[in-house]
Amino acid sequence: MKSAEMLQTATVERRRLAGLDGIRGLAALFVVFHHVWLLSFPGFPRDTGPGWASWMVYGHFAVVVFIVLSGFSLALSPARNGWRLDSLGRFAHRRAWRILPPYWAAVALSLVIAWTLVPQPEQGVPTAKSVLIYGLLLQDVFGSPSPNGALWSIAVEAQLYFVFPLLLLVLRRMGAVVMVGAVTAVVAAVGVLAQVVPVVGELMRLTPQFAALFALGMAGAGVVRLQRRIPFQWLAAAALLPVLALIVLKGSVWTIGNLYWIDLAIGPATVLLLAAVATGKPAPVVWLLDTRPVKSLGSFSYSLYLIHAPIVVNIHALVIAPRMEQGVPAFLVSLALAVPVTVVAARLFAGVFELPFTRSRTPAALRAAVRARLSRARTQ
Predict the structure, then answer these.
(1) Disulfide engineering: 144 pairs with which of 130, 197, 317, 339, CB 3.0-4.6 Å?
(2) How far is Cα 340 from Cα 335, in angstroms, rounded to an integer?
(3) CA separation for the pair 360, 365 (Å, rounded)
(4) Per-block mean pLDDT, blocks of 10 residues, the chain (380 long)
(5) Which of 97, 91, 220 is nearest to 164 (CA)?
Protein backbone atom coordinates (compact mmCIF):
# COMPACT_ATOMS: atom_id res chain seq x y z
CA MET A 1 0.00 0.00 0.00
CA LYS A 2 2.75 2.38 0.95
CA SER A 3 4.58 1.68 -2.32
CA ALA A 4 1.43 2.39 -4.30
CA GLU A 5 0.98 5.71 -2.50
CA MET A 6 4.61 6.61 -3.16
CA LEU A 7 4.19 5.75 -6.85
CA GLN A 8 1.04 7.89 -7.06
CA THR A 9 2.81 10.79 -5.36
CA ALA A 10 5.75 10.51 -7.77
CA THR A 11 3.34 10.54 -10.73
CA VAL A 12 1.62 13.66 -9.41
CA GLU A 13 5.00 15.34 -8.85
CA ARG A 14 6.15 14.64 -12.42
CA ARG A 15 2.87 15.99 -13.80
CA ARG A 16 3.11 19.07 -11.58
CA LEU A 17 6.64 19.90 -12.65
CA ALA A 18 5.80 19.50 -16.32
CA GLY A 19 2.72 21.70 -15.96
CA LEU A 20 4.53 24.43 -14.07
CA ASP A 21 7.40 24.42 -16.56
CA GLY A 22 4.86 24.78 -19.35
CA ILE A 23 3.34 27.82 -17.63
CA ARG A 24 6.81 29.36 -17.40
CA GLY A 25 7.39 28.80 -21.09
CA LEU A 26 4.09 30.32 -22.19
CA ALA A 27 4.55 33.28 -19.85
CA ALA A 28 8.02 33.95 -21.28
CA LEU A 29 6.62 33.75 -24.83
CA PHE A 30 3.88 36.20 -23.80
CA VAL A 31 6.57 38.71 -22.80
CA VAL A 32 8.22 38.32 -26.22
CA PHE A 33 4.89 39.05 -27.93
CA HIS A 34 4.41 42.05 -25.65
CA HIS A 35 7.73 43.61 -26.61
CA VAL A 36 7.07 43.05 -30.31
CA TRP A 37 3.72 44.81 -29.81
CA LEU A 38 5.37 47.76 -28.02
CA LEU A 39 7.74 48.36 -30.94
CA SER A 40 4.99 48.01 -33.56
CA PHE A 41 2.36 50.39 -32.16
CA PRO A 42 3.03 53.85 -30.67
CA GLY A 43 1.46 55.47 -27.63
CA PHE A 44 1.79 52.90 -24.85
CA PRO A 45 -0.01 52.61 -22.44
CA ARG A 46 -2.72 53.52 -24.96
CA ASP A 47 -3.84 50.50 -26.95
CA THR A 48 -3.31 51.67 -30.52
CA GLY A 49 -3.13 48.24 -32.09
CA PRO A 50 -5.90 46.06 -33.53
CA GLY A 51 -8.49 44.69 -31.15
CA TRP A 52 -7.43 41.08 -31.65
CA ALA A 53 -3.96 41.95 -30.30
CA SER A 54 -5.10 43.97 -27.28
CA TRP A 55 -4.11 41.23 -24.84
CA MET A 56 -0.47 41.77 -25.79
CA VAL A 57 -0.53 45.19 -24.12
CA TYR A 58 -0.46 43.46 -20.75
CA GLY A 59 2.86 41.63 -20.87
CA HIS A 60 3.57 42.86 -17.34
CA PHE A 61 1.14 40.27 -16.02
CA ALA A 62 3.48 37.51 -17.16
CA VAL A 63 5.91 38.79 -14.52
CA VAL A 64 3.13 38.48 -11.95
CA VAL A 65 2.84 34.82 -12.95
CA PHE A 66 6.62 34.38 -12.66
CA ILE A 67 6.72 35.85 -9.13
CA VAL A 68 3.78 33.81 -7.81
CA LEU A 69 5.18 30.70 -9.49
CA SER A 70 8.59 31.35 -7.95
CA GLY A 71 7.18 31.43 -4.42
CA PHE A 72 5.01 28.40 -5.19
CA SER A 73 7.86 26.31 -6.60
CA LEU A 74 10.40 27.22 -3.93
CA ALA A 75 7.95 26.37 -1.14
CA LEU A 76 6.90 22.94 -2.44
CA SER A 77 9.81 21.12 -0.82
CA PRO A 78 9.59 22.95 2.54
CA ALA A 79 5.82 22.33 2.54
CA ARG A 80 6.54 18.61 2.59
CA ASN A 81 9.01 19.10 5.43
CA GLY A 82 7.03 21.11 7.96
CA TRP A 83 7.90 24.41 6.23
CA ARG A 84 11.60 23.93 6.97
CA LEU A 85 14.57 24.41 4.68
CA ASP A 86 17.12 21.61 4.69
CA SER A 87 19.86 24.23 5.01
CA LEU A 88 20.15 27.98 4.49
CA GLY A 89 23.55 27.52 2.91
CA ARG A 90 22.31 24.89 0.46
CA PHE A 91 19.29 27.03 -0.42
CA ALA A 92 21.51 30.04 -1.15
CA HIS A 93 23.89 27.92 -3.23
CA ARG A 94 21.08 26.33 -5.24
CA ARG A 95 19.50 29.70 -6.02
CA ALA A 96 22.79 31.34 -6.96
CA TRP A 97 23.83 28.33 -9.06
CA ARG A 98 20.50 28.33 -10.87
CA ILE A 99 20.03 32.07 -11.42
CA LEU A 100 23.39 33.79 -11.70
CA PRO A 101 25.33 32.02 -14.51
CA PRO A 102 22.69 32.59 -17.21
CA TYR A 103 21.88 36.02 -15.78
CA TRP A 104 25.48 37.25 -15.92
CA ALA A 105 25.89 35.76 -19.40
CA ALA A 106 22.72 37.59 -20.51
CA VAL A 107 24.01 40.86 -19.04
CA ALA A 108 27.29 40.43 -20.95
CA LEU A 109 25.47 39.59 -24.19
CA SER A 110 23.09 42.53 -23.75
CA LEU A 111 25.97 44.93 -23.13
CA VAL A 112 27.80 43.79 -26.25
CA ILE A 113 24.65 44.20 -28.37
CA ALA A 114 23.90 47.64 -26.88
CA TRP A 115 27.48 48.83 -27.41
CA THR A 116 27.90 47.49 -30.94
CA LEU A 117 24.40 47.53 -32.44
CA VAL A 118 21.25 49.21 -31.06
CA PRO A 119 20.70 49.98 -27.35
CA GLN A 120 17.36 49.58 -25.62
CA PRO A 121 14.66 52.14 -26.49
CA GLU A 122 14.84 55.38 -24.48
CA GLN A 123 17.84 54.10 -22.51
CA GLY A 124 20.95 55.24 -24.30
CA VAL A 125 24.26 53.39 -24.40
CA PRO A 126 25.03 51.52 -21.15
CA THR A 127 27.82 52.95 -19.01
CA ALA A 128 30.33 51.56 -16.53
CA LYS A 129 27.71 52.27 -13.87
CA SER A 130 25.30 50.04 -15.78
CA VAL A 131 27.82 47.20 -15.71
CA LEU A 132 28.26 47.51 -11.96
CA ILE A 133 24.60 47.92 -11.07
CA TYR A 134 23.31 45.15 -13.33
CA GLY A 135 26.14 42.86 -12.35
CA LEU A 136 25.18 43.25 -8.68
CA LEU A 137 21.43 42.93 -9.35
CA LEU A 138 20.70 46.42 -8.04
CA GLN A 139 18.93 47.82 -11.09
CA ASP A 140 15.68 48.31 -9.19
CA VAL A 141 17.52 50.36 -6.55
CA PHE A 142 19.81 52.58 -8.63
CA GLY A 143 19.17 54.11 -12.02
CA SER A 144 21.44 53.68 -15.04
CA PRO A 145 21.03 53.08 -18.79
CA SER A 146 19.65 49.57 -19.13
CA PRO A 147 21.31 47.08 -21.49
CA ASN A 148 18.19 44.91 -21.40
CA GLY A 149 14.67 46.07 -20.60
CA ALA A 150 13.59 42.70 -19.20
CA LEU A 151 16.22 42.38 -16.46
CA TRP A 152 14.50 44.60 -13.89
CA SER A 153 12.38 41.73 -12.55
CA ILE A 154 15.39 39.45 -11.98
CA ALA A 155 16.68 41.89 -9.35
CA VAL A 156 13.29 41.88 -7.63
CA GLU A 157 13.15 38.10 -7.54
CA ALA A 158 16.72 37.79 -6.26
CA GLN A 159 15.88 40.14 -3.40
CA LEU A 160 12.82 38.06 -2.53
CA TYR A 161 15.11 35.07 -2.03
CA PHE A 162 16.62 36.87 0.95
CA VAL A 163 13.25 37.10 2.72
CA PHE A 164 12.16 33.58 1.76
CA PRO A 165 13.62 31.92 4.89
CA LEU A 166 11.99 34.56 7.11
CA LEU A 167 8.63 34.06 5.44
CA LEU A 168 8.99 30.30 5.95
CA LEU A 169 9.66 30.88 9.64
CA VAL A 170 6.53 33.01 10.01
CA LEU A 171 4.51 30.47 8.02
CA ARG A 172 5.72 27.60 10.17
CA ARG A 173 5.05 29.33 13.49
CA MET A 174 1.95 31.38 12.74
CA GLY A 175 0.37 29.84 9.67
CA ALA A 176 -0.19 30.80 6.06
CA VAL A 177 -3.02 33.24 6.73
CA VAL A 178 -0.94 35.30 9.14
CA MET A 179 2.11 35.26 6.88
CA VAL A 180 0.26 36.32 3.73
CA GLY A 181 -1.91 38.76 5.65
CA ALA A 182 1.05 40.48 7.31
CA VAL A 183 2.99 40.87 4.07
CA THR A 184 -0.08 42.08 2.19
CA ALA A 185 -0.92 44.59 4.93
CA VAL A 186 2.56 46.10 4.72
CA VAL A 187 2.39 46.20 0.93
CA ALA A 188 -1.06 47.82 0.98
CA ALA A 189 0.16 50.42 3.49
CA VAL A 190 3.11 51.26 1.25
CA GLY A 191 0.80 51.61 -1.73
CA VAL A 192 -1.48 54.03 0.13
CA LEU A 193 1.25 56.08 1.81
CA ALA A 194 3.30 56.34 -1.38
CA GLN A 195 0.70 58.77 -2.72
CA VAL A 196 1.24 61.27 0.12
CA VAL A 197 4.67 60.53 1.64
CA PRO A 198 7.55 61.11 -0.81
CA VAL A 199 9.99 58.90 1.11
CA VAL A 200 7.58 55.97 0.96
CA GLY A 201 6.96 56.75 -2.68
CA GLU A 202 10.60 55.96 -3.39
CA LEU A 203 9.88 52.35 -2.40
CA MET A 204 7.57 51.92 -5.37
CA ARG A 205 10.53 51.39 -7.69
CA LEU A 206 11.12 48.12 -5.78
CA THR A 207 7.64 46.87 -6.82
CA PRO A 208 6.61 45.97 -3.24
CA GLN A 209 3.45 44.26 -4.48
CA PHE A 210 5.64 41.40 -5.69
CA ALA A 211 6.46 40.55 -2.06
CA ALA A 212 2.77 39.85 -1.41
CA LEU A 213 2.50 37.82 -4.62
CA PHE A 214 5.59 35.81 -3.68
CA ALA A 215 4.15 35.13 -0.20
CA LEU A 216 0.84 34.08 -1.73
CA GLY A 217 2.63 31.63 -3.99
CA MET A 218 4.44 30.15 -1.00
CA ALA A 219 1.17 29.63 0.85
CA GLY A 220 -0.33 27.97 -2.22
CA ALA A 221 2.28 25.22 -2.09
CA GLY A 222 0.85 24.08 1.26
CA VAL A 223 -2.74 24.14 0.03
CA VAL A 224 -1.89 21.71 -2.77
CA ARG A 225 -0.53 19.18 -0.32
CA LEU A 226 -3.56 19.32 1.96
CA GLN A 227 -6.59 19.72 -0.30
CA ARG A 228 -6.38 17.87 -3.60
CA ARG A 229 -10.15 17.63 -4.18
CA ILE A 230 -10.89 21.35 -4.14
CA PRO A 231 -11.98 22.61 -7.62
CA PHE A 232 -9.08 25.03 -7.90
CA GLN A 233 -9.71 25.66 -11.60
CA TRP A 234 -13.21 27.03 -10.99
CA LEU A 235 -12.04 29.10 -8.03
CA ALA A 236 -9.29 30.54 -10.24
CA ALA A 237 -11.84 31.48 -12.90
CA ALA A 238 -14.13 33.06 -10.29
CA ALA A 239 -11.23 35.09 -8.89
CA LEU A 240 -10.01 36.22 -12.31
CA LEU A 241 -13.29 37.21 -13.99
CA PRO A 242 -13.95 40.37 -11.91
CA VAL A 243 -10.39 41.59 -12.53
CA LEU A 244 -10.67 40.93 -16.28
CA ALA A 245 -14.01 42.75 -16.35
CA LEU A 246 -12.44 45.75 -14.62
CA ILE A 247 -9.50 45.79 -17.07
CA VAL A 248 -11.84 45.65 -20.08
CA LEU A 249 -14.12 48.32 -18.61
CA LYS A 250 -11.35 50.75 -17.62
CA GLY A 251 -8.97 50.16 -20.52
CA SER A 252 -5.22 49.93 -20.83
CA VAL A 253 -4.27 53.46 -19.70
CA TRP A 254 -6.08 53.12 -16.39
CA THR A 255 -4.90 49.53 -15.91
CA ILE A 256 -1.22 50.30 -16.52
CA GLY A 257 -1.52 53.31 -14.25
CA ASN A 258 -2.85 51.11 -11.44
CA LEU A 259 -0.68 48.03 -11.85
CA TYR A 260 0.21 48.04 -8.15
CA TRP A 261 -3.35 47.15 -7.18
CA ILE A 262 -4.19 45.13 -10.28
CA ASP A 263 -1.17 42.90 -9.63
CA LEU A 264 -2.43 42.23 -6.12
CA ALA A 265 -5.91 41.48 -7.45
CA ILE A 266 -4.56 38.99 -10.00
CA GLY A 267 -2.46 37.18 -7.37
CA PRO A 268 -5.22 34.93 -5.92
CA ALA A 269 -6.36 33.79 -9.36
CA THR A 270 -2.78 33.01 -10.32
CA VAL A 271 -2.04 30.88 -7.26
CA LEU A 272 -5.36 29.05 -7.66
CA LEU A 273 -4.47 28.29 -11.28
CA LEU A 274 -1.10 26.92 -10.20
CA ALA A 275 -2.81 24.78 -7.58
CA ALA A 276 -5.23 23.48 -10.21
CA VAL A 277 -2.45 22.53 -12.63
CA ALA A 278 -0.43 20.97 -9.82
CA THR A 279 -3.36 18.69 -9.04
CA GLY A 280 -4.06 17.83 -12.69
CA LYS A 281 -6.96 20.18 -13.45
CA PRO A 282 -8.41 21.06 -15.83
CA ALA A 283 -7.28 18.03 -17.81
CA PRO A 284 -7.15 19.74 -21.26
CA VAL A 285 -4.95 22.53 -19.89
CA VAL A 286 -2.64 20.06 -18.18
CA TRP A 287 -2.46 18.06 -21.41
CA LEU A 288 -1.47 21.20 -23.33
CA LEU A 289 1.18 22.11 -20.78
CA ASP A 290 2.48 18.55 -20.97
CA THR A 291 2.90 18.51 -24.74
CA ARG A 292 6.46 18.25 -25.95
CA PRO A 293 6.75 21.74 -27.53
CA VAL A 294 5.40 23.52 -24.44
CA LYS A 295 7.48 21.45 -22.03
CA SER A 296 10.54 22.09 -24.17
CA LEU A 297 9.83 25.82 -24.19
CA GLY A 298 9.49 25.74 -20.42
CA SER A 299 12.86 24.04 -20.03
CA PHE A 300 14.65 27.15 -21.31
CA SER A 301 12.05 29.81 -20.44
CA TYR A 302 14.51 31.61 -18.15
CA SER A 303 16.96 32.05 -21.02
CA LEU A 304 14.13 33.16 -23.31
CA TYR A 305 13.14 35.84 -20.82
CA LEU A 306 16.74 36.91 -20.25
CA ILE A 307 17.86 37.51 -23.83
CA HIS A 308 14.74 38.24 -25.87
CA ALA A 309 14.63 42.04 -25.40
CA PRO A 310 17.87 43.03 -27.19
CA ILE A 311 17.12 40.57 -29.99
CA VAL A 312 13.59 41.87 -30.53
CA VAL A 313 14.76 45.50 -30.41
CA ASN A 314 17.55 44.95 -32.92
CA ILE A 315 15.39 42.98 -35.36
CA HIS A 316 12.89 45.81 -35.30
CA ALA A 317 15.47 48.61 -35.54
CA LEU A 318 17.72 47.05 -38.19
CA VAL A 319 15.30 44.99 -40.28
CA ILE A 320 11.71 46.17 -39.82
CA ALA A 321 11.81 49.93 -39.14
CA PRO A 322 13.91 50.88 -42.21
CA ARG A 323 11.43 49.12 -44.50
CA MET A 324 7.97 49.81 -43.08
CA GLU A 325 6.17 52.12 -40.70
CA GLN A 326 4.67 51.08 -37.39
CA GLY A 327 1.36 49.28 -37.72
CA VAL A 328 -0.18 45.90 -38.35
CA PRO A 329 2.08 44.88 -41.29
CA ALA A 330 5.22 45.73 -39.29
CA PHE A 331 3.79 43.89 -36.30
CA LEU A 332 3.07 40.71 -38.26
CA VAL A 333 6.47 40.72 -39.95
CA SER A 334 8.15 41.37 -36.60
CA LEU A 335 6.33 38.42 -35.06
CA ALA A 336 7.28 36.18 -37.98
CA LEU A 337 10.95 37.11 -37.62
CA ALA A 338 11.51 37.90 -33.96
CA VAL A 339 9.67 35.01 -32.31
CA PRO A 340 11.45 32.10 -34.06
CA VAL A 341 14.84 33.84 -33.98
CA THR A 342 14.47 34.61 -30.29
CA VAL A 343 13.31 31.10 -29.39
CA VAL A 344 16.17 29.47 -31.31
CA ALA A 345 18.72 31.89 -29.85
CA ALA A 346 17.39 31.27 -26.35
CA ARG A 347 17.64 27.50 -26.79
CA LEU A 348 21.25 27.79 -27.93
CA PHE A 349 22.02 30.20 -25.10
CA ALA A 350 20.40 27.84 -22.58
CA GLY A 351 22.44 24.92 -23.87
CA VAL A 352 25.59 26.71 -22.75
CA PHE A 353 24.62 28.93 -19.85
CA GLU A 354 21.45 27.49 -18.28
CA LEU A 355 20.76 23.80 -18.82
CA PRO A 356 24.23 22.55 -17.76
CA PHE A 357 23.69 24.26 -14.41
CA THR A 358 20.27 22.67 -13.93
CA ARG A 359 21.55 19.20 -14.78
CA SER A 360 24.71 19.45 -12.65
CA ARG A 361 24.00 20.93 -9.23
CA THR A 362 27.61 21.51 -8.09
CA PRO A 363 30.81 22.82 -9.69
CA ALA A 364 32.39 19.37 -9.39
CA ALA A 365 29.42 17.71 -11.11
CA LEU A 366 29.50 20.35 -13.86
CA ARG A 367 33.22 19.83 -14.48
CA ALA A 368 32.70 16.07 -14.64
CA ALA A 369 29.82 16.48 -17.11
CA VAL A 370 31.89 18.79 -19.33
CA ARG A 371 34.85 16.37 -19.30
CA ALA A 372 32.55 13.46 -20.18
CA ARG A 373 31.01 15.40 -23.04
CA LEU A 374 34.41 16.41 -24.41
CA SER A 375 35.58 12.84 -24.14
CA ARG A 376 32.57 11.58 -26.11
CA ALA A 377 33.16 14.26 -28.74
CA ARG A 378 36.76 13.14 -29.23
CA THR A 379 35.79 9.49 -29.70
CA GLN A 380 33.11 10.21 -32.32
Answers:
(1) 130
(2) 8
(3) 5
(4) 41 59 95 97 95 95 96 92 89 93 97 96 93 95 92 94 95 94 96 91 91 96 73 94 96 96 96 91 90 93 97 96 94 96 97 89 78 71
(5) 91
How far apart CA 318 and CA 337 sit, in angstroms, is: 12
The Cα-based distances of 289 to 295, 296, 301 in angstroms read 6, 10, 13
Evaluated on CA atoms 167, 168, 173, 178, the torsion sign reads positive
Residue 288 CA, distance from chain mean position: 20
Residue 255 parent element (H or E)? helix 252-257
Q: What are phi and psi of 321, to 5 degrees?
A: -60, -40
264 and 213 in contact (C-beta within 8 Å)?
A: yes
Cis before residue 282, ω within 30 degrees of 0?
yes
For 97, residues 6+ apart whose C-beta sits below 8 A from its C-beta are 357, 361, 362
pTM of the model: 0.91
C-alpha to C-alpha distance for 24 and 92, rounded to whole angstroms: 22
- Residues with Cβ within 8 Å of residue 284, at least 6 apart in sequence: none
